[in-house]
Amino acid sequence: MNFEEVNILELLPQRPPFVMVDKLLYCDREATVTSLTVRDDNIFCDNGRLTEAGIIENIAQTCAARMGYINKYICNDTVKLGFIGAIRNMEIRRLPQIGELMTTKIIVVEEIFQMTLVRATAIAGDENIASAEMKISITDVESKKE
Question: For 27-37, what is each residue's pLDDT tens digit?
Answer without folding.
Answer: 998 999 999 99
